[in-house]
Design brief:
single chain, alpha/beta, Rossmann fold, two-stranded parallel sheet, 51% helix, Universal_stress_UspA, UspA domain-containing protein, UspA
């Protein structure tokens, strides 16, 4: 788990953590238009939004339990790697700590890897925590 690895090896009490989630497939502009037109989200958009909110709540809880000072944000974007780098710059981050997810070689070939993109393009140190193998 990313938070336990971070807490065990890297965290200092004075650190502030920005837990950033870049949801795939959530179109913020579309959601805003739906709200503006009808005052509510369509069912598919509502389901996606609910999943994002649940994830934010889980991470907020994990941060609270681990006594990490900071915030949890979800920022939809077409390029998650670019969104992560831009958010780190805006917040004056000293480093980016991120996990990986298991993807097939075919998926990596066509879609690339967010962690690879961040590693190659960030101007600050990037620490990649591999997914725990079962």
């Amino acid at each position: 788990m990313l938070t336990s690895g971070y807490c065990k090896y890297l965290h200092h009490p004075e650190n502030e953590v920005l837990a950033l989630h870049c949801p795939e497939g959530f179109d913020l502009t579309k959601a805003q238009k739906e709200l503006a037109k009808s005052g509510q989200l369509k069912e598919n958009t509502e389901i996606q939004y609910s999943k994002i909110t649940e994830l934010e709540e889980r991470y907020h809880h994990k941060m609270h339990v681990a006594k990490l000072n900071g915030v949890v944000l979800s920022i939809p974007g077409k390029n998650a790697g670019q969104t992560i780098i831009e958010s780190a710059k805006e917040d004056g981050a000293l480093a980016i700590v991120m996990g990986t997810r298991s993807r097939s070689l075919l998926q990596k070939a066509f879609q690339g890897s967010v962690s690879e993109y961040v590693l190659k393009n960030a101007d600050i140190p990037v620490i990649i925590v591999p997914k725990k193998r079962k």
